[in-house]
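Q: What does the predicted 3D structure of Response regulator transcription factor look like?
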Amino acid sequence: MSAPLRVVVADDQALVRTGFRLILMADGIDVVAEAANGEEAVEVVLRTRPDIVLMDIRMPELDGLEATRRILTGAPDAPRVIMLTTFDLDDLVYAALAAGASGFLLKDVTPEHLVAAVRLVRTGDALLAPAITRRLVERHAHTTPPAPNTTAHRDLQTLTPRELEVLQLLAQGLSNAELAERLHLSETTVKTHVGRILAKLQLRDRVQAVVTAYETGLVSPKTAG
């Protein structure tokens, strides 16, 4: 029998923390600690070594973005971080995804979706809601184009033509099944391509792949439509 998932819940609202803890524990997920601000979140994560962190994006003392950066920077065994937000186009959420967060949830998420999201991210996949994530990335690619990332551009040159094609479609929010159908490949082959893309570009998951595709100019809001 596998060990239960270990989760830290970081939110400045006690009611939110309690609600999430009860939902997760009712499904056999172990909430090992709670935090009321970003400073506490960093401290308890380093102390308890959870699998997943549910991180409110806007907290006092240290916001969720900076806390996420501190948790993920230079830590090969860092937990997966899921951002919590009250609205889906929060500017800080985009920055958190670029910093390595594995996705985000709205705070009014249903109990079933919360549990499913935590279990999905634990498997190494990303919590990528195609429509919302793509809209978020496109908004920032359109309003605040980042400076050219020469390292990322250079890394893209290591991808094969097929891998570049997969990355472009991935950035449009296609699932593995949809990619397989579009490219006339098996889902297993698609998973292999995605895995190689992540490895070559040194990305944690599909969310970072989407961000990278936009920030390097491989995909733009116009071409992704």
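A (community wiki): The structure tokens above were generated from the sequence. The chain has two domains: 6-127, 148-215. Confidence is low (pLDDT under 50) at residues 146-150.
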